[in-house]
Amino acid sequence: MNSGTFDNLQRLLPEFYKALGETLVMVGVSATFAVVAGGALGILLFASARGQVFARPGLNAVLNWLVSYMRAFPFVILMIVLMPLTRAIVGTSFGPLAASVSLSIAASFYFARLVEQNLNEVPKGVIEAAQAMGATPLTIIFKVLVNEARAGLILSVTILIIAILGESAAAGLIGGGGIGDLGIRYGHQRYMKDVMAAVVSLLSVIVILVQSIGNRLSKHLDKR
Question: Where is the ABC transmembrane type-1 domain (predicted)?
Fold first, then answer.
């Protein structure tokens, strides 16, 4: 790198700090909402399937269609469609909090499918043993299924956070801010290759760090 490159990065350092903060807000808010709402939806998807503890085939078919439809919805289009809802919730359609509304909704349906898959991997014998001991459906779900699937669920949360981080870059297209937006505005639109390289490097470090923490925690919780 030449001195001009370092000058660019040094001059934009406050922008990097601001963008990093905006990205952390978007990822933090969206991931928290998705884990709670998407986790509940994923459990309902699993439990309402035929042969499960709360079998409701009709409800399950509707939920499966809804989750599949929302997952296939292009995120940039979803942000535009949800602008009126975003304004109603946060008072504006711009900024990291506004972008978090669309991110939260998209991430919830994504995480719901991951949770359903994790619960489907729990051996049926574990469920049958709990039923034989007289456990209630809620006990089976939260004390047996979730406990057995915890290592996989941690990995799913890791995947979720990384996916949100990637989608947050697209949020810059409607003024959501963040690291991705910084790369678009300076690295792409102003042809500052050094800034783009710094943005990509920063995002890569964050992804590697999140994945490493998730892998380690999952391995610690996996008692198999």
Answer: 20-214
